[in-house]
């Protein structure tokens, strides 16, 4: 296993679907630690399950192919790179003092996005309030039921 970890996220419509995803990942030994957050979209509530994955583990990456790669700031903000670029473009357009700056040079005040999920759906920037639900740690046990 390498040491380059990436944060993967999967959006689920129900808690049952989220739990099936967690079961699948833990049985495949991809991860044993998961975080559940909820957020509201225009079409209803969603569950975001996040987990850390070894970026050098090709099998793990194939197993979680239906997930998205997320980045996380200390403010609890989670975002995709596409969303970061769209957000920088939006900030640039709305602030005349940034008109001559490249979007890569725009500094984002992450406190303004504390506890948010920033993503792109259908080419449109979306920002959702995340509500932490709980963390799940799955511990492996031997045949006697003792922790490994």
Describe the protein.
The protein folds into two domains: 1-72, Alpha-Beta Plaits, CATH 3.30.70; 81-129, no CATH class. The mean pLDDT is 85. By secondary structure, it is an alpha+beta fold. The chain has an eight-stranded mixed β-sheet with strand order 7-6-5-4-1-3-2-8, with helices on one face. It is built from three helices and eight strands, in the order βαββαββαβββ.
Along the chain, the helix and strand elements come as EHEEHEEHEEE
Hey, roughly how much beta strand do the residues contain? 35-45%
Largest sheet: 8 strands, mixed
β-strand number: 8
Report helical residue fraction.
10-25%
What is Rg? 18 Å
Strand order of the largest sheet: 7-6-5-4-1-3-2-8
CATH top level label of the largest domain? Alpha Beta
Unreliable parts:
none
CATH architecture level-2 label of the largest domain: 2-Layer Sandwich
State the domain count: 2
Helix- and strand-based class? alpha+beta
Taking all residues together, what is the mean pLDDT? 85
């Amino acid at each position: 296993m390498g040491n380059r970890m990436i944060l993967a996220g999967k959006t689920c419509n129900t808690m049952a679907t989220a739990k099936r995803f967690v079961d699948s990942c833990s049985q495949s030994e991809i991860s044993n630690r998961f975080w559940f957050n909820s957020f509201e979209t225009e079409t209803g509530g969603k569950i975001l399950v996040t987990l850390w994955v070894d970026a050098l583990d090709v099998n793990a990456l194939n197993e979680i192919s239906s997930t998205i790669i997320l980045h996380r700031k200390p403010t609890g903000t989670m975002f995709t790179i596409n969303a970061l670029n769209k957000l920088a473009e939006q900030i640039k357009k709305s602030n005349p003092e940034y008109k001559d700056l490249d979007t890569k040079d725009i500094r984002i005040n992450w406190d303004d996005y504390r506890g948010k999920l920033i993503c792109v759906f259908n080419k449109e920037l979306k920002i959702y309030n995340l509500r932490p639900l709980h963390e799940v740690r799955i511990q492996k046990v031997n045949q006697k039921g003792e922790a490994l």
